[in-house]
Design brief:
two-stranded antiparallel ribbon, elongated, 1 helix, mainly beta, single chain, 35% strand, two-stranded antiparallel sheet
Length: 62
């Protein structure tokens, strides 16, 4: 049987691996497309994962 090796990084508990989102502002550009803002998750800085040791320090016990 293969041994299970723990992952070196964990999924970010704040964004749940969806680190970047596009938010529409409701306004339109001259060509008719919507104006959007791209926002990145602050704790993981847009990577979607955090180092394994940081999860224990940041988790709130939810």
């Amino acid at each position: 049987m293969p041994e299970i090796t723990p992952a070196r990084v964990r999924r970010c508990p704040d964004c749940d691996d969806f680190p970047s989102v596009a938010i529409t502002t409701g306004q339109t550009n001259p060509d008719g497309t919507r104006k959007t803002l791209t926002v990145a998750c602050r704790p993981c800085q847009g990577t979607g994962s955090v180092p394994r040791h940081a999860v224990a320090a940041t988790s709130s016990g939810r």
